[in-house]
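Supplementary Methods. Inverse-folding protocol.

Structures were first reduced to a discrete structure-token string of length 305. This string, shown here, constituted the complete conditioning input.
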């Protein structure tokens, strides 16, 4: 074995089964662990990892890995996605049909100063091909799940970019168990080609009468350069969802760009929202709550950043 083979043998415990690159910066792929991993609850995440010795795609900054050492591993949490439909798109995919875990990644180029300081994992993941080895953690984690959803609740999913990954798994689960409430998903992406699951979501309303979907793009020619916050204020999201945002029966799940979410922080015991208004603040103004300490929390967002 050469030096790289020895390092990979020592540190890696999974294989990349296949990949679907929509273009140079968006990719869907599946990873199969060498050893069984407990089933994930929809919305949870696993860590992926590669060594600092792995190549970085052309044009991406490798970042500084000095503190990790020559055998260091770069690890990051990624939400688990789902294909939702089977390959023929005639029905929902069955758990036994899925081999490994599905991930939806985008290659985000950070500001130059930060790119040089932080080891670049996605730039390395984008170099992988089917059959290549990598690291995956052994236990799904995260509390961004469907546990709080009641059988009759209306459920709204709001996502930017690859933030729709956990929502795909959640939507699959709700439809599989024949959720009685209404379900809607609104996804915002920079370009139409970034919408990796667009065809699946457009098929679902034909199969399930309680499901609606809307995708919006912000950077394509002729597109409206609006944020999900703008559509929420205008009332468009409720129109697309097909149900009112009623705090007494609606659960809202928000994932993606932290600027869109606008999560509050606790400063000197007080909840303080960011200067730029996000979805969480707008919903709280309408009677919803994302406060972990509230009697009824009905706005949920991923908190692993």
């Amino acid at each position: 074995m050469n030096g790289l083979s020895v390092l990979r043998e020592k540190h890696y415990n999974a294989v990349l089964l296949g990949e679907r690159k929509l273009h140079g910066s968006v990719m869907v792929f599946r990873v199969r662990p060498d050893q069984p991993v407990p089933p994930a609850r929809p919305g949870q995440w696993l860590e992926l990892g590669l060594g600092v010795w792995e190549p970085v795609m052309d044009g991406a900054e490798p970042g500084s890995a000095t503190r990790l050492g020559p055998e260091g591993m770069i690890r990051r949490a990624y939400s688990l996605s789902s294909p939702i439909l089977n390959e023929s798109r005639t029905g929902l995919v069955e758990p036994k049909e899925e081999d490994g875990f599905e991930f939806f990644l985008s290659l985000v180029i950070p500001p130059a100063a930060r790119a040089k300081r932080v080891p670049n994992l996605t730039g390395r993941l984008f170099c992988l091909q089917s059959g290549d080895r990598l690291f995956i953690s052994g236990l799904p984690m995260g509390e961004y799940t469907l546990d709080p959803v009641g059988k009759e609740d209306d459920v709204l999913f709001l996502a930017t970019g690859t933030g729709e990954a956990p929502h795909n798994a959640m939507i699959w689960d709700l439809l599989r168990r024949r959720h009685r409430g209404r379900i809607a998903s609104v996804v915002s992406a920079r370009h139409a080609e970034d919408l990796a699951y667009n065809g699946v979501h457009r098929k679902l309303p034909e199969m399930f009468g309680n499901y609606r979907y809307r995708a919006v793009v912000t950077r394509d020619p002729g597109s409206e350069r609006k944020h999900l916050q703008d559509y929420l204020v205008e009332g468009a999201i409720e129109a697309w969802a097909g149900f009112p945002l009623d705090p007494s029966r609606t659960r809202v799940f928000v994932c993606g760009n932290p600027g869109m979410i606008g999560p509050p922080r606790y400063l000197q015991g007080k909840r303080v929202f960011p200067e730029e208004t996000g979805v969480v603040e707008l919903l709280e103004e309408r009677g919803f709550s994302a406060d972990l300490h509230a009697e009824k929390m009905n706005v949920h967002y991923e908190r692993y950043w």
